[in-house]
Amino acid sequence: MNIKNILFTAFLLISSLMVSYANESVILSGIVKDNTGGSIVGAVIVVKETSQFAQSDVNGKFTLPKLKPLSHYTLIVNYMGFKEYQEVVDLSKGNNIAIKLIPDHYNLNEINIKTKSKVQQVKEKAYNVAVVDATKLHARSMDIGHALSKTSGVRVREQGGMGSNMNISLNGYSGNQIKFFIDGIPMDNFGSSFQLNNIPINLANRIEVYKGVVPVGLGSDALGGAVNIITNTYDKTSLDMSYGYGSFNTHRTNLNFVYADKKSGFFTQLNAYQNYSDNDYNVEVDVYDINTAALVGKNMKIKRFHDRYHNENFVGQVGFINKSFADRLAFGMTLGQSYKEVQTGTRMISVFGKLHQRGNIIMPTFVYEKKNLFTEGLDVRVNANYNLGYDQVIDTVYRRYNWLGDYVDLEEKYGKKGGERNRTMYKYRNNNGMVATVVNYKIGDQHNFSLGNTINFFKRKGQDELDIDNPIKSTPAETTKNITGLSYQFTPNMIWSATVFGKYYNQHIRYTEPYKLSDKWADYGYRKFDANHGYFGYGITGSVFLSDDLQLKASYEKSIRLPSSNELFGDEVNVLGNNKLTPEVSDNYNLGINYNMRFSEVSLVNFDINGFLRNSTDLIFSKLENYDQNRQTFDNLASARNTGIEAEIRYFYKNSFNIGVNATYQNFINTNKYVTGIKSEVYKDRLPNIPYLYGNADINYTINNLYKNDNLMLGYSVFYTKAFYLFWPSFGSKSKGKFEIPDQLVHEFTATYSFGKDKNYQFTFEIHNVFDRKIYDNFSLQKPGRSFNGKFRYFF
């Protein structure tokens, strides 16, 4: 069945459901204030009869949608520093209420487990999951990718400044081994215009980081974990707009507007944002004369001159929420474009002056969600999208550059045309379609079944106008992935729960490959390759609360990750594909402890410790291309083992002060003893280009009522990475050099001033890399030095 048929079938299903339902659910709304009439932000409102809950917003307002049409409800309201509030609401007298809380001594023990925030609820799942509360970062001038940098076990790795390639290292695994989702929708092949490091943090409500086992509902073939970005809700009208400016001529603009008509359920969401930077920061490099190749200077400080980046994106949706036929029904469109100059290859031993790439995204989207579909406890969610965008690589100037910007015109010298690396104007479409369906069926309070299926279609087809007859570029390269999972969760009480699951993975690969016709030079033929593979995975997770403050978690999964299109076919810039890759298989074990130690009514310390073991076969890892080290490619490693531990300690005092530190140690080694019958030289070596010890520390203090109702938040962070080797440790020697990436210690300062009646005006000032340290990432690529950023934000 093709994508058009699937979407048409989904449309017919939704249309029939719209006709089937007639009765609307009840919406209860209100406002929470203190005894002086001031709005309370973050109060938790719980419906006793249904356990549904909501939190009051910056204006103290809240909404409880999708309530059954009963006559009376009991509301329980909790907020730190105030007495618990209870009220029986009579809906016959109206569905909009005012609640006034009475001050009391702050007592953490009074917070009932039912009144925990969504962030707390996700953290307490049986999965090894960390949660980033993105709402606390909306004043920052950062993207979603960098928002993950403070999470225990996570290291954000990028190849330079704004717009550079970025990936997340999570317990040793990185790149495509970690899967990314937006509201449960896979971000595979969204194109260069829509990536983690160009999506503003304001688009997210929270970010869930799953380490190891990934829920069936995400429909993922992740090997080491997944990141699910939960966007803002659409149940009330809101506006969030900001502008930021920083070093290297960096500009960030974001506008997010939601209109919601509570009476009709109609909503529309518009998000527009842009990023721009010259990325002209200093790097320290060896500089050679462009004509004689003589060394001009060693470790010279040079400003990058060809690294400009900008992108402009629009995300829009229209639909209905909290209706009888759907809790959410939305049709959307994502549009965007990007321009990126390519300054270097995978390593900085080469430099380019004209090579660049362009791209866009044109992606219609569809979302349908309904709880209690046809029967009590049956919930359904359907997501679909299709990317019609393109990417293009432009390399038409035949020059050789050095870091001073000097160049030799090779076209003039040799009398022929060429490029800086590979003459091309290849324009291709990474058309990607996805349909994800999740069905949950809950029987009572103890039993929950979940069935998920994700179908992902990928097709790369393009043409190089400078090489029209090249069959590799003009013939489509295609993959189809189908991942189906079934899980059962048993929750006998609030103390412990367990989940068992199984997954089936299927991948179909089609492409054209060259082969040698004879021993003559350039005597090649072309043939089509077609393969189909199927694999099974399974696992179990468990959680138990030994007390209200002590939780144990354990999980195991036999996980499979299918090679991605980027690994199979490359990215046409700095990545060469390897279409002979086989899927990765890994046995993943996790054991975690979370403990709250309460010192007084106003303070506590949280301990979070997790140990992990990964035994992987056919591990897909990145390596430098052999002959020039300017591009990277991928290969399978027969076997590898990763053991490690991560820990985080954080102290909280009231709502005004917290300090924390986290660290991760991992020993990711090659366990493949023999290669073609010969003992491997790198047996038991640590895998190269992967940090094995890193951590963060931060301290945050908020000065309340600095002037009238204004607040000032001050934050200081430190990021540390222990030195690690760029290549296999057994190669090279200390005397000849082992190509080590040295210790890195980076400091960051942040100040946010919030003012206005509802504190809905914010100004943030940031200093990154305070002491202007030299910092590196993938394959020793240098990142920006000290930079200054400011951001102004207004929201309601």
Quick check: average pLDDT?
A: 84
What share of residues are in beta strands?
over 45%
Helical fraction: under 10%
Q: Largest beta sheet, briefly?
A: 23 strands, antiparallel
State the separation between the terminal residues, measured CA to CA.
45 Å
Oligomer: single chain
> Count of DSSP E strands?
45
Number of H/I helices:
6
Radius of gyration: 27 Å
Q: Tell the overall outline.
A: globular
Structural class, from secondary structure content?
mainly beta
Which residues form runs of ≥5 with pLDDT under 50? 6-23, 105-116
Please provide a written account of the structure.
The chain has 796 residues and is mainly beta. The protein is 5% helix and 54% strand. The strands form 9 sheets. It has a 23-stranded antiparallel sheet that branches. The longest helix is centred in the N-terminal third of the chain and has 18 residues. 39% of the residues are buried.
Short structural summary:
Helix content is 5%, strand content 54%.
SSE blueprint:
Blueprint: H1 3-20, E1 26-33, E2 44-47, E3 53-55, E4 61-67, E5 72-78, E6 85-90, E7 96-100, H2 118-123, E8 129-132, H3 144-147, E9 154-158, E10 166-170, E11 178-182, E12 185-186, E13 204-211, E14 225-231, E15 238-246, E16 250-260, E17 266-277, E18 282-288, E19 295-303, E20 309-321, E21 328-341, E22 356-370, E23 378-387, E24 391-394, E25 399-401, E26 407-409, H4 410-414, E27 426-443, E28 447-464, H5 471-474, E29 477-490, E30 496-516, E31 524-547, E32 550-561, H6 565-569, E33 584-600, E34 603-624, E35 632-653, E36 657-670, E37 674-675, E38 678-679, E39 693-703, E40 711-721, E41 724-725, E42 740-741, E43 744-755, E44 761-768, E45 787-795
Parallel strand pairs: 1-7, 11-14
Antiparallel strand pairs: 1-4, 2-3, 2-5, 5-6, 8-13, 9-10, 11-12, 13-14, 15-16, 15-45, 16-17, 17-20, 18-19, 20-21, 21-22, 22-23, 22-24, 23-27, 24-27, 25-26, 27-28, 28-29, 29-30, 30-31, 31-32, 32-33, 33-34, 34-35, 35-36, 36-39, 37-38, 39-40, 40-43, 41-42, 43-44, 44-45
